[in-house]
Design brief:
Layout lengths: L3 H58 L6 H16 L2 H24 L2 H4 L2 H36 L3 H4 L28
Helix pairs in contact: 1-2, 1-5, 2-3
Length: about 190
């Protein structure tokens, strides 16, 4: 009977450790899925923006055909945005996209008849709405990354998280934060 108490203590300790590992693993999986979902939201919104840009280019091109370099830069930024893999590449593409959109809106400001075009105004409104959604998606993604990275780094999770295959994720950081601080604005 004397051996029963140490065996029960060991069984209880093993059960506690097992429950802890199970709970930690499940919470890490939940956070990983949340971050993956948030990244998917960002890519969906960036794709939506990329789909709007050819229409915007065609609308502006009709009024400002001689601004070829602007249209080429926007097209190049769109392609870069669509091909971005991961937060670092997406952030660089985001910088180029913001710069290109500012230049096309600057061209548009020089043409009052374009500014009165219902098609242009609708495209501009949709683009601003999409930029707002991208910004919100980025915040949601970074919040999820913060939670996941924190969960991976805290003790004692840091002892087991990497062994379970969980790694820290990169934040969606843009090197030129002023370029994306707010959606592109056009003043008529």
């Amino acid at each position: 009977m004397e051996w029963l108490i140490p065996v029960l203590i060991i069984v209880v300790l093993v059960a506690i450790v097992g429950i802890y590992l199970w709970a930690t693993y499940n919470s890490l999986v939940t956070l990983k899925v949340r971050v993956d979902e948030a990244w998917s939201d960002i890519t969906v919104q960036m794709k939506r923006r990329a789909d709007l840009i050819p229409n915007l280019i065609e609308t502006v091109k009709g009024y400002a055909a001689h601004e070829k370099a602007v249209f080429e830069n926007v097209t190049k930024a769109r392609a870069e945005s669509l091909s971005a893999q991961g937060p670092a590449e997406a952030a660089a593409a985001e910088n180029h996209m913001q710069s290109a959109l500012r230049s096309i809106f600057a061209v548009a400001e020089a043409y009052p008849q374009l500014q009165a075009s219902q098609n242009y105004l609708q495209l501009q409104a949709e683009l601003v709405d999409t930029e707002d959604k991208i910004q919100a998606s980025r915040r949601f993604y970074n919040g999820g990354v913060r939670e996941l990275n924190t969960k991976i780094q805290v003790f004692p999770n840091n002892l087991i998280a990497r062994n379970l295959g969980f790694t820290q994720r990169d934040f969606f950081e843009v090197s030129d934060s002023d370029a994306i601080a707010e959606p592109p604005r056009v003043q008529f």
